[in-house]
Amino acid sequence: MKQPEPRLLARFCRVAARVWLGIREWCGDAAYERYVKSRRRRACAATVLTPEEFYVEQLEKRYSRVNRCC
Amino acid sequence: MKRLGAIGIWAVIAIGGALALGKIALYRGEAINATWFVVAAVCCFLVAYRLYSAFISAKLLALDDTRATPAERLDDGRDFVPTNKWVLFGHHFAAIAGPGPLVGPTLAAQFGYLPGTLWLIAGSAFAGCVQDFIILFCSIRRDGKTLGEMARDEVSKRGGFIAQIAVLAIMIILLGVVALVIVNALKSSPWATFTLAMTIPIALLLGVYLRYLRPGRVLEASLIGVALVLFVVVAGQWVADSPAWAHVFTLSGVALALAIMAYGFAASALPVWLLLAPRDYLSAFIKAGAIFSLAAGILIVRPDVHMPALTKFVDGTGPVFAGKIFPFCFITIACGAISGFHSLISSGTTPKMIEREGHARFIGYGAMLLESFVGVMAMVAACAMQPGVYFAINSPPAIVGAPGDAATATISSWGYPVDTATMANLAHAVGEQTLFNRTGGAPSLAVGMAQIFSHTIGGERLLSIWYHFAIMFEALFILTVLDAGTRVGRFMVQELAGRVWKPLGRTGWMPGILFSSALIVGAWGYFLYQGVIDPLGGINSLWPLFGIANQLLAAVALVVATTILMKMGKLRWIWVTLIPTAWLVTITMTASWQKIFDPSPRMGFLAAANAMAAQLAAGKIPAAKIVETQRLIFNQRLDAVVTVVLAGMILVLLVEALIQWSAILSKRKAAVLHESPYVASRWAAGAEGD
Fold first, then answer.
1. How many domains does chain B have?
2. How many CB pairs under 8 A join A and B?
3. What residues in B contact A20, CB-CB < 8 Å?
4. Spans in chain B with pLDDT lower than 50
5. The complex's ipTM?
6. Residues 286 to 345 of B: which have CB under 8 A from any A CB?
7. What is the pLDDT of residue B139?
8. In angstroms, what CA-CA distances link B434 with B72, B176, B414, B427, B492?
9. Do the domain assignments include residue B240?
10. B189: closest CA of chain A, how far (Å)
11. How far away is chain A from the Cα of B345, in angstroms, using its nearest Cα?
């Protein structure tokens, strides 16, 4: 059987990885990783919340304002 | 050469859209294929996006990718998070897509397929998308301020206060009406009631999993939850087939209303991670899956649309709801074409996450186009069934007669043949005891969706599973609006109550939480209860009230947008928001006037109250029904007062805005914009326009 072109395979893997990341970001799975990155970038790692704290804080904020429509 | 090619492609899309639109507008045969609807909608939306939204971006808003957005300037990884535009599009669409675009077009199908379809396409392109896009832009330029804050800053303090009160009032009506849609869908249906009830323990399980076992692992938890929900959809059949269990889950309208109120109270008062959030995750995945499946199903099955282009009910005598095509087609469609509620999302979370100003076009305008496309698909699903069946499902017995031969005889006499055996067979096929008098739009949409799904996968054997999947999808969708809305309403009540007595404003104080939750649930619960006991099915009076409220909020948003554009000096293009504003004010004021003062008891709230009061005075009401009749009279008068208050609020806001506009135009007042100062974007060098 003919093997797929290595460049084509690499491109497919890149696209699949981006789609997977997009899905994780859309549903909130990647929110904590993003938050930690942001804190590190701003050099305030000392005040980084734990995953549990971050999850509950995010939910409290999200559901205290209109976030679902009719 | 490349440019010529692009012009050629867009010309083909435009001609295709015009031909398809012409076909559905002019065809008067027995049935028309749904493909024409899909082609018309897709081509018109593509052209609207390519041309009209580009025109608004360039001429009206002058979107500037060199200007840092709030997400870039204030990036904290929590509220302000620069987000990929496709991901944010998904977030924004999930937030704006609610049950309205599914239920509204289904109800408006009583006028025929044409008026609703045309308004879904034109209304979204020229009004709904414009509102979402411009409010999103305004909020981005103001660090993500809410609609109320922008109304206060840009129109007047009173305008801001009115907008805040209008949002609360509209939310209460909205929650009452959508809850009524669920009650009517679950009434006397043990299968559907069991399925929906089981989503509560599933959500609790996911809540604990996400909080303690795998914090924040939403994807895996949601997949487990979706699998469990699909299992309970199938398991519902076993419950319905077991006489003992079926009895437990066969509930009356009043019992269901009380259960839903109890649920709303619990979701508002319990910690958000326990019930509300996990249910929302479940709903988001099922919503995305069901909408995608419906689109795919319509494209694969390409069903024929049997509903005529126009029915005789354009004259206002329709059984589903009273009112002529103008203004009630527009009021009923509501969210599918333009929704005031979207302005709350466009001025809430989304502006804090947008990476570049240029993305506002794709997210604000584009997401609303997709929402409207969902509305067109709902219209197709509702119109694909035989019109007689559609009217039998959606008509209350007070209009068509008792379920069975009386109802089918009345509906057939209108020229939409249907017989009792057909209805009985259909009810049996979808696993329901009856499909007569299932007002509210959800059951008929579920029948339409199930017919499309079953033609795609499984055939007649799976019709009942697909029907209950569709009912579960709609109900889950609505419960998510209900619980999230109740919680937000609780915060609004606490904010207002805190001005009277400070402790009530503390969002962590349990007595304050319980008090405000009870107040908000009691408020929408009252509208729900009055709908449940209404002999005309409730939807007849409450859906128009919801539509009026929703469109009034859209008018508020467009007034704010017009004021801001005027201050920006965009007078030449001000018609872009001014025409939709004038249109919305016209339809809402006409509808409000007719709902209050129309002499027909089916139409006018006061006429209905007076007719019942006259019957009561003449002693024509049996003794056992006197208390109920008095309550119905009170409810009709209350609805009239609510309509007056809503219309009054928009008129006051309009006068405030007119004073402001006159002062700006006559240069008596400086046009001061409350935008955040310009800061250059770090990403400007690599900025790509849309």
1. 1
2. 128
3. none
4. 687-690
5. 0.87
6. 334-335, 339, 341-342, 344-345
7. 97
8. 56, 25, 22, 5, 41
9. no
10. 24
11. 6
Q: Does A24 touch chain B (CB under 8 A)?
A: yes
Q: Other C-beta atoms within 10 Å of B636: how many?
A: 23
Which helix (H) or strand (E) element contains residue B19?
helix B2-26
The whole-number pLDDT of residue B688 equals 45
The confidence score (pLDDT) of residue B686 equals: 54
What long-range pairs does B43-47 form, CB within 8 A, spacing at least 24?
Answer: B43/B13, B43/B14, B43/B16, B43/B17, B43/B18, B44/B17, B44/B121, B44/B125, B45/B121, B45/B124, B45/B125, B45/B369, B45/B372, B45/B373, B46/B13, B46/B17, B47/B10, B47/B13, B47/B14, B47/B17
Taken in order A14, A19, A21, A22, the sign of the CA dihedral is positive
- Please give the pLDDT value at position A70: 78
Question: What domain range is B259 assigned to?
Answer: 2-188+251-676
What pTM value is reported for the model? 0.93
Tell me if B533 sits within 8 A of B630, measured CB to CB: no
Q: Is B270 exposed, middle or buried (0-12, 13-18, 19+ CB in 10 A)?
A: middle
Any idea what the CATH number is for the domain that residue B43 is in? 1.20.1740.10
Cβ contact (<8 Å) for B87 and A26?
A: yes
Q: In the prediction, which pLDDT does B453 show?
A: 92
Mean pLDDT of A5-29: 89
Residues of B within 8 A of A60 (CB-CB) are 272
pLDDT attached to residue B147: 92
Residue A45 confidence (pLDDT): 60
B229 in a domain, yes or no? no
A70–B339 CB contact, under 8 Å: yes
Nearest CA in chain B to A57: B78
Strand partners, B67: B680
Omega within 30 of 0 (cis) for the link into B327? yes
Q: How far apart are CA B250 and CA B452, in angstroms?
A: 27
